[in-house]
Write a structure and sequence with these properties.
This protein is an all-alpha fold. The protein contains nine helices and no strands. The chain is globular. The protein starts with a helix and ends with a helix. 16% of the residues are buried.
């Protein structure tokens, strides 16, 4: 169970790195390039309107201070972005490309001096699937009908250690590419 927890936490750290690169480091640049539009397709117009209307209200001594609507919008967009997961292979490549690291799996394969990208993509996809089974399905084996007995998915400890090692190395590579 501790290895499963370690894997989940490693992936959480990678997801946090991707979110930080998007919301903290490159937010204004992504906004100017229009790349946040692709990520925030479902941003509520009513929330944006509310922020704009609130920015019209004067505050402070003598009513001279106004809130900064750009900061308020940034906070709202950041909150919505943190609700998204960037760990799926396509989302991961998309968010890395938006942050300037195009074709991240190809770059990682080149870094590892491997000829093919697919094994790396497949390994990441397998790890992400495993993470979802642990986090969202509580390691319970799926069945078509209601089971009389609950069975749990068993993971090989050596495989989990290899996955943790892969995520650690890939996470460090991502951090170096995303700044």
């Amino acid at each position: 169970i501790l290895l499963q927890h370690a894997l989940v936490m490693m992936l959480a750290a990678v997801d946090k790195t991707l979110h930080q690169a998007t919301t903290a480091k490159n937010f204004v640049q992504l906004l100017k390039l229009g790349k946040l539009d692709d990520l925030m397709k479902n941003f509520p117009i009513s929330e944006t309107y509310g922020i704009a209307m609130e920015s019209r209200i004067r505050r402070g001594h003598g009513g001279k201070k106004k809130p900064r609507p750009a900061n308020m919008i940034r906070e709202a967009v950041s909150a919505k972005l943190y609700e998204l997961s960037f760990l799926g292979t396509n989302n991961l490549e998309g968010i890395c490309a938006a942050n300037g690291a195009k074709r991240i799996f190809s770059a990682y394969a080149k870094h590892l001096e491997r000829k093919s990208v697919e094994p790396l993509r497949n390994q990441w996809s397998s790890i992400y699937k495993k993470r979802n089974e642990i986090v969202h399905e509580c390691n319970i084996v799926r069945t078509k009908i209601s089971p009389k007995k609950i069975r749990f998915i068993t993971f090989d400890p050596l495989e989990l250690r290899r996955d943790i090692d892969f995520v650690e190395k890939f996470g460090k590579f991502l951090t170096s590419k995303l700044g």
